[in-house]
Amino acid sequence: MAQRILIIQGHPASDSLCAGLASAYAEGAHAAGAEVRWLRLGEMDFDPLLHAGYRDAQPLEPDLVAAQAAMVWAEHLVWVYPVWWGAMPALLKGFIDRVFLPGFAFRYRSGSSLWDKLLAGRSAELLVTMDSPPWYYRWVQGMPGHRQMKHTILEFSGIRPVRVRSIGPVRSADATRRAQWLQQARQWGTQQGRRAPVSSKNRLQG
């Protein structure tokens, strides 16, 4: 059985380096025999605002219903996005606010501060571009965006392991360096596509 990989392209622009990295990763994974599906957030139709928080249910647009179904289907989630002001773009954060809902991504236990991790059984990979040198983002700024995505969103929902790949500095990169990053993304996709599918135990059934 082929590995099931979902790629979430979180940059709003279709001509960005993130879009290129996502396509290169998909090419490598597909060539290695994986099944690949896409979510291109810039092309999806949804309101990124969770208007009442969790107090009232906010109906999901068809694109978000399809996104949840794709996450249920997937065994490995690949998130490709830039760091803007230390963290993810507003579009991606809005997508997560709308999709990672109680009852889908997690469920608090009655009378307890503990919770059930409803997306357990999946792994994830973050391809994150940035204008800062990755060492600076890690050691000086403390990786706030990486910590948010890995620990407080994905692992909170049971998705693990989560591998983070920092790509930068983009601002000063020439064409040769960008081509190298694209080739790396292709290799990462190939490596993941060759992996055996994860066990279906504890996974939501799609």
UniProtKB/TrEMBL annotation:
Instruction: Report if keyword Oxidoreductase is assigned.
Output: yes
Report domain Flavodoxin-like fold positions. 4-187
Q: Which UniProt keywords apply?
A: Oxidoreductase
Region span, Disordered: 186-206
InterPro entries per the UniProt record, alphabetical: Flavodoxin_fold, Flavoprotein-like_sf, NAD(P)H_dehydrogenase_qn
Q: Which Pfam families match?
A: Flavodoxin_2 (PF02525)
Q: Where is the composition biased (Polar residues)?
A: 189-206
Which SUPFAM superfamilies does the UniProt record give?
Flavoproteins
The GO cellular component terms are: cytosol
Please give the name of this protein.
Putative NADPH-quinone reductase
UniProt entry tagged with the keyword Oxidoreductase: yes
